[in-house]
Amino acid sequence: MKNKTHSGTKKRIKVSGSGKLLREKAGKRHLLEKKSSEHTRRLSGQTEVAKSDDRRIRKMLGI
């Protein structure tokens, strides 16, 4: 039987053209009023998934 893709993970992780796993940074959903503009700018954009999590997440995505 084929393995199913983890639907929560597929919504959060994007695979780049070169095969890297990209994710959004945490902490930019709420309580933004008290965070400085510098802080919120730092949280924008995407970052690579940690090396230690890479194998586990690839398995969840079925890659």
UniProtKB/TrEMBL annotation:
Q: Name one GO molecular function term.
A: structural constituent of ribosome
Note the SUPFAM superfamilies from the entry.
L35p-like (SSF143034)
InterPro entries assigned: Ribosomal_bL35, Ribosomal_bL35-like, Ribosomal_bL35_sf
Q: Name one GO biological process term.
A: translation
For this protein, the record's Gene3D superfamilies field holds: 4.10.410.60
Q: Which domain of life is it from?
A: Bacteria
Q: Composition bias, kind Basic residues: at what positions?
A: 1-14
Q: Which GO terms describe its cellular component?
A: cytosolic large ribosomal subunit
Pfam family, any one:
Ribosomal_L35p
| Region named Disordered | 1-63
Q: Which UniProt keywords apply?
A: Ribonucleoprotein, Ribosomal protein
Q: Which HAMAP family match?
A: Ribosomal_bL35
Protein family membership: Belongs to the bacterial ribosomal protein bL35 family.
**NCBIfam families xref list:** rpmI_bact
Q: What is this protein called?
A: Large ribosomal subunit protein bL35
The UniProt gene name for this protein comes to rpmI
